[in-house]
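Repro:
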Amino acid sequence: MTATLAARSSFNHRLKGWPGWIVLLFLAVLFVVMGAVGNDGVSTPEERADAISRRLACPECNGETVYESQVTASVNIRREIQAMVDEGRLSDDEIVAALEENYGERLLLLPTGKGVNVLVWALPVAAGVAGLTGLVLVFSKWRREAALEDGPTDEDRALVAAALDDES
């Protein structure tokens, strides 16, 4: 039984070491790269117009995109998008910018990185950094405390041996 506890303790110690953190970091970087490189595969003008209309909020509805909404304003915006896509002069971002200029910032589903909207992007990042920092500090404190603790005393060993003898 003592060998099992020692083996389990050794495994836990190795699991908490640097290799585990390196694997976690590798996976996090892998997921970020996969998300950034992902291709939406838009190939036809209709698919491109649909993709753009999914990025915009209905100006009259709550919680619907221009793509989903059947309100007259959304139908007109979809027609504008299709016309701009058919012209072929503007990129997707330029089309969204032109529509934002006409209808205002409330049309955007994703906030811009200007003014107060920066908080929408910065606060989750700051919370994540603070959380990770807190975890690192707590784990390092626990590791220091574990290193300072002495192993079991002779009295502890005698108590365990007595308990094991009582069970037998």
